[in-house]
Structure to design on (964 residues):
């Protein structure tokens, strides 16, 4: 044996026959770990297959299999007659410990009251895993290949079933297309309409700013239509050929579209041939009554219904759906196909199973109780601590609006709260030009546990009181409050 | 008890206490199944909670829990004092049995020799499931929330590690962005360049037609640059500001970019400030030697490297990556963020674990052996059965090219083969204007087992022989051969 050639004991390698998994795999994993951790640096020698096999009492073939796998992975250099050496630099793996650059900024938020965050701690990991396991076991080989651009058929059926019974949507599975979420659905509709020369898309003012960017990026020009206490002003949609609305729970104002406006909106669509895009982002969460059925159910030929699992199940699952009128289905699917941005087949298989078992409904039901308690706490505490300010928005969804005397004060509160570790958003962040509605702060209660929410509210209320006090003492300084 | 109220035995409902899962869940599942199957049609009555609880010997609370869940799901109508009734129509669920419309057309293909299809039967479901299970168990709550648009940090580290050791790519995790696949990566780069006013993108002629559509859809104009036996003609890229190439194994011609051309291409990029987009779609599969390292490794500042798991693992996993030069990273990530088209967090977590365990490498190694055998069979049999025709392309990837005397004959063979249940593609389907290279048929051997491949080759060879015979007898009729 050459003096340069180490032995198993030098490498702290051994095998345990009582463990599950083959001896060859154990060896391979130990060596890979040693190389990745830097214990075996690049250029270092390994025992020959013969020596290592003798050292740990296994057949030479066992060592050869492990070495070959590691050579194939690029960790080892094997040449006939030469001693095996480590090829990669151990530095590579140290990066795993590194944190992304923005980690620091995010960690300065102590309480996150931004409106888009649902509770992720309650994601039913066990039930989800069961759906992954069972759906994967049942999947046909073709389910794992390039699928239909419109989505897995079984999932389209389950989503149609769910939307019909839970949301009053009128949906045949053929009309349901699986997408990467609501913004993806909106981008696709925007592109379909733009190709038809219909490039004016009306939005509620205010409405989520992310949607405005997505629509513009899809070739649409934004038309602004104000929201009042009954929802969107249907008489002010103007020349737009489409309009994006959130009838069940307008974001961010929190109002529901009144029955009269629902009718007026449908009349607008029928009279002008316009398309209504119904963003049903959190309608499952209604606390004072049963959720209002989707607008789409009243006139499926004039409404595109879009929804997703982002707020209702978990954001990490990038999965949503669009229910389309006959006139749009083909172009929409073609757009999906030509961009090749399909949704994970694994997730589609699992979610179809998850829906079929009633797990989605069960989760929604549990979350509804949790969110209702949080909303009650928030509303009660704000009324106690800030009795002079009005809370608006129906008892639904994941946020309320605390009205403010002016946009300047709202912005000041937002900035000051952030500096104290409380992240909130303002209505102003979501307005389009010519906004003349109420000023307010959006408070999301989705992601904080009851004790954390209690502390967050107290910290936030102190901030509001401080800013309002300063504004009273020196109105001119408010805009500049840090 | 009212005569209208049925009993448990009428509904064939019972509970088994030896089974796992709560009694309430069993009851719920049996009732849901009965409603969905139509056994309990809409409008039919159920026993009251008291009656059913007595019938099956459980507490009333157990029945109430099951009923409430089903009411929440929209299956049951519960009103105080009234008998519970079934609400939904059973018709809904029958659709699950229905097949999508194009099912018939697809089933007429007996042998699928199209080039983009990898083997899905060998997808390691067990190892994948282990990665899903373990990564989900380990995941932090924040991993399940809205993540970094650029992808899960742990996965970016693992992908960087993999590409460095297996493909000779120069990659820090900060440069790696996770996308929905190669076409998604290309769409994003196309949009970034278009926003900078760089709207001329050169493509190899021939190259995959899907990529052309994606680039155009991203605002790029296609410039065609011919391919010869050494790969792309770098002197004919013209005024384009970017060029898409597949240096390791050009699609569809099957040639590798020669060392001289590699150097010339990099010189073009340095001289003009142009961007090379390296599509490394199947480079891991090389059968005659170790895979050639990526072009990107030679000049990371001028090359965007894109890859995916579509050919190498399984198409259903819509997951890929781009390794970006410093000059592109920010805009690319911004484009991803503004379209909100992120990749499934579930898949990212699982794939990071899968890579870390060496399962991806193990799978590639197994597939390499399988594909090598299939390629050998295809090449040997074609040489036997069609001795007059040349097979071109290096020993790599998932396809070979069978050269044809003319594009017309190639098209006729393709059409005729399809009518006999054998799906193949032609080079012509992937050409850009002004193509003057070889005519040929692309034969993909990725998805067929050895016996199926043997039969497919025989059927295909007979078709070629028939068409060539007819062409000799009546050259004018070839274009019209059905």
């Amino acid at each position: 044996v050459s003096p340069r050639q180490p032995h198993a004991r030098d490498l702290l390698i051994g095998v345990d026959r009582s463990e599950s998994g083959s001896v060859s795999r154990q060896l391979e994993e130990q060596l890979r770990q040693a190389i990745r951790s830097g214990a075996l640096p690049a250029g270092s020698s390994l025992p020959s297959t013969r020596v290592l096999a003798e050292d740990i009492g296994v057949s030479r073939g066992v060592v050869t299999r492990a070495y070959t796998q590691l050579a194939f992975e690029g960790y080892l250099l094997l040449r006939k007659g030469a001693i095996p050496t480590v090829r990669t630099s151990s530095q590579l793996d140290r990066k795993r410990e590194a944190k992304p650059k923005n980690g620091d900024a995010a960690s300065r938020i102590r309480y996150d009251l931004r409106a888009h965050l649902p509770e992720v701690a309650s994601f039913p990991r066990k039930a989800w895993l069961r759906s992954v396991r069972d759906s994967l076991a049942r999947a046909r080989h073709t389910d794992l290949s390039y699928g239909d651009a419109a989505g897995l058929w079984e999932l389209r059926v389950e989503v149609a079933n769910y939307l019909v019974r839970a949301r009053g949507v009128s949906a045949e599975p053929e009309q349901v297309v699986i997408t990467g979420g609501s913004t993806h659905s909106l981008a696709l509709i925007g592109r379909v309409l733009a190709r038809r020369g219909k490039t004016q898309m009306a939005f509620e003012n205010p409405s989520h700013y992310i949607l405005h960017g997505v629509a513009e990026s899809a070739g649409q020009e934004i038309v602004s239509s104000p929201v009042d206490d009954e929802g969107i002003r249907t008489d002010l949609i103007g020349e737009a050929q489409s309009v994006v609305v959130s009838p069940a729970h307008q974001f961010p104002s929190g109002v529901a579209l009144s029955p009269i406006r629902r009718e007026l909106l449908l009349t607008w669509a029928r009279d002008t041939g316009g398309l209504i895009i119904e963003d049903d982002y959190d309608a499952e969460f209604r606390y004072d009554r049963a959720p209002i059925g989707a607008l789409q159910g009243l006139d499926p030929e004039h409404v595109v219904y879009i929804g997703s699992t982002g707020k209702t199940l978990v954001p990490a699952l990038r999965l949503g759906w669009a229910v389309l009128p006959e006139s749009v289905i083909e172009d929409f699917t073609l757009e999906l196909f030509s961009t090749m941005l399909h949704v994970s087949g694994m997730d589609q298989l699992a979610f179809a199973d998850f829906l079929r078992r009633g797990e989605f409904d069960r989760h929604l039901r549990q979350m509804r109780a949790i969110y209702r308690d949080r909303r009650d706490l928030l509303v009660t505490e704000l009324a106690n601590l800030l009795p002079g300010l009005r809370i608006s928005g129906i008892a639904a969804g994941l946020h309320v609006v605390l009205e403010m005397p002016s946009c300047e004060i709202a912005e000041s509160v937002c900035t000051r709260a952030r500096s104290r570790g409380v992240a909130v958003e303002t209505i102003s962040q979501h307005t389009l030009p010519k906004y003349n509605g109420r000023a307010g702060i959006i408070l999301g209660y989705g992601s904080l546990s009851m004790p954390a929410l209690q502390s967050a509210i107290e910290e936030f209320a102190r901030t509001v009181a401080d800013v309002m006090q300063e504004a009273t003492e020196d109105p001119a300084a408010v805009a500049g409050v840090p």
